[in-house]
Design a protein that fits this description.
By secondary structure, the protein is an alpha+beta fold. The protein has helices at about 10-30, 40-45, 70-80, and strands spanning about 1-5, 30-35, 55, 60-65. The protein has a four-stranded mixed beta sheet, with helices on one face. The chain is globular.
């Protein structure tokens, strides 16, 4: 499993989401990464208006903010599969 945070340079919400994801994934032992939405035209078209966007194994989980309880539950559910 891998969590991807779709981000944008200079985005305060993105910085906060990265901190939240880093903390939560660290506690649960889940790999995570960031991807700059502006580095790919398709990403910019799909996610550009919603950053930060949280993906779990490539599937959109949420956007704008990390909902901690929901995010934790999703990670545990995916890990149990």
């Amino acid at each position: 499993m891998i969590v991807t945070v779709m981000t944008r340079q200079g985005c305060h919400f993105c910085e906060q989401a990265e901190q939240d994801v880093e903390r939560i994934c660290g506690e649960l032992g889940v790999a995570w990464e960031t991807a700059d939405v502006d580095s790919d035209p398709e990403w910019r078209a799909e996610y550009g208006d919603y950053v930060p966007v949280i993906l779990i194994d490539g599937k959109q989980h949420g956007y704008h903010r990390v909902e901690e309880d929901r995010f934790r539950k999703a990670l545990v559910t995916v890990a149990e599969r």
